[in-house]
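Changelog-linked ticket: (2Z)-2-iminopentanedioic acid example.
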Amino acid sequence: MTRDQVPTLQEFVEGLEKRNPGQPEFIQAVKEVAETVLEHIRANPKYHKHQILERLAEPDRVISFRVCWHDDEGNVRVNRGYRIQNNNAIGPYKGGIRFHPTVNQGVLKFLAFEQTFKNALTGLPMGGAKGGANLDPKGKSDAEIMRFCQSFMSELYRHLGEDTDIPAGDIGVGGREIGYMFGQYKRITNRYVGVLTGKGMEFGGSPIRIEATGYGAVYFMEDMLKRIGETVEGRTCLVSGSGNVAQHAVEKILALGGKPVTLSDSDGFIYDKSGITTEKLAYIKELKNKRRGRIEDYAKEFGAEYHAGKRPWSVPGELAFPCATQNEITGEDAGVMLKNGVVAVSEGANMPSTLDAVRLFQGARIMFAPGKAANAGGVAVSGLEMSQNSARITWKEAELQRLLRDIMQEIHDRCQRYGGVAGDDKYIDYVKGANIAGFVKVADAMIAQGVV
Ligand code: NDP
Ligand code: 2IT
């Protein structure tokens, strides 16, 4: 291969693997983008000339640091914290913070890479980043979480700023953690600025930021169905996870007349044949957000089925909303889902479907919305929180509801624009559409800004 030629997928992936050993999730995320974007690069040589894909797959900055803290017994504990700043061509770095024992550099690099495309798809000026720590928050007291967040921010603050890098929540990081991190940032810098999103409403938070990711994933499903003259109403829905995204996906499914029947956590899943109702959802919110309990308790409370150590994909249903974590739908799961009648998948989580699963969904020509498009509602409302903080005002909830709905529709339309498939004018490849639409925006900005 000479530098004049666009690499083949195999050549590109071989180089990627060599440069990023031991980072399978990062390889997977970049490979999925390369699969769809290389053809577009071949047709538009300027993107090859400027080595855009190669540059996007090399984070601007990888920050890794030690986080020391005291537990309630007075022991010194040590964790590893990270911030990956992937790309800031179209705006300051933006993306969530994850606290989970599975966090490592490769996982956060995949998330920061995906975030770059997702943020571009929202139409708002935000670059891509992700951060986190290999902390297991389960069983930790509020005081321990506070000390951890303070220690984490004592290093991270120097890399942040309201015009530089603005983190938010993700797995294991919700309102409580954002509050503690904001407090520490303010204490260290003596500045009161919108340096984090997902803040409490008393100190600069935005209406509907909490709901936005789950609602957005259901809106995306609604828009895919609308294109073929169908709706969510009356459809049986499979949802995984039981955290922020899953809870609000269920809430919006119910609002649109759908029937959610499953939820899960890392220990197992519940199957409620009669359907999860608004009252049962209130129980889940109390259980997960206040008592920090296990989903198994739901089965005991309402007499639903509980399947320990399993994910919900064997349950019959038509619409699927994976909202827990990466690679939670394997090729085998996808095969079962197709047999059981799943006709559409909207990813609330980031990369919940393996490459095998995506291939099977697309091969069967069902509607498949990748996370970087379907779950972009959360970061979109984060972008709106930043605007409100800069202007030092809070918009009305109804206005934000409308903006979120419009943004999700626009993301759907951007995917549709680039997602056409030769020889099949009825099918939209939303993976291809999302990847190319996100790529083009960031790539054109990078070209305009030179080799930096
Ligand atoms: P939460 O921490 O609120 O909830 C995560 C849920 O997923 C919990 O039910 C958790 O179970 C489960 N889970 C986490 N890790 C695993 C695992 N390894 N195996 C099985 N279950 C697991 O996080 P969110 O709801 O915020 O995030 C869910 C997904 O959505 C993630 O992929 C995240 O990146 C993505 N996302 C989140 C956004 C947001 O705004 N919050 C925006 C866009 C995407 P348990 O209680 O046992 O840990
Ligand atoms: O994956 C994601 O988009 C998030 N966790 C939200 C990021 C944000 O900055 O709101």
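Closing comment: Example verified and attached. Residues 100, 102, 169-172, 174, 213, 241-246, 265-267, 323-325, 348-350, 375, 378 surround NDP (ligand 1) (CB under 6 Å). The chain has a mean pLDDT of 97.
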